[in-house]
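Record minuted for everyone:
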Amino acid sequence: MIGFIIFLAIVLAIVFWAVGIYNRLVSFRNRFKNSFAQIDVQLKRRYDLIPNLVETAKGYMKHERETLEAVIAARNQAVSANAKVGGNATDAAAVQQMAASEGALSASLGKLFALSEAYPDLKANQNMMQLTEELTGTENKIGFSRQAYNDSVMEYNTAIEQFPGSIFANMFAFKPAELLQATEAPEERKAVKVTF
C-alpha cells in the first residue's frame, strides 16, 4: 500500500510538472501575441493619421504630387501586409513582409516631412503641426511596442527551445515566433537629409 502511494505521488508530481511546463509555454505565447496586438493597435492609428496628413499637405505641396502619392501607396501596402499577418506572428514570411512594408512607409513619411520643411506655410499650419505631433507620438509608441514584442518573442522562443520545454513544444505544436527586425533596404537606413 505504501509503495502504491509513493508511486501515485511520483506520477502526480510528474503530471503537475508537465502541466506547469505546458502552462508556462501557453503564457509566453499569449504574452507575445498580446505584444503583437499592441503593435497592431498603434499601426492602425498610424494608418488613420496618414491620409489626414496627406490631405493637409496637399493644399500646400501642389508640386510634390509624386511624394504624396508615394506615401499613400506605401500606407496601402503596409495595411495589406499587416492584414496578411493577421495577428499570427509565427508566419515568418508574412511578418518579414510586414516589416519591409512598414520600413518603406517610414521612409516615404521621412521624405514627406523633409519636403514639408520647404513650405513655411505648411509647417505653420495648425492641422499639420497637430497631425505631425500625433504621428510622432504614434511612431514612438510603435517603437516601444516593437521592443516589447521582440522581448516577448525572445522569451517565448527561448522557452520552446530549452529542455524540457522543447519536448512539450514539439508535442503540442508550439512554433517559433518571428522577431521584428530592421529591413535591409538601404534607403531605410539613411538619415533623411533636410536642407534649409
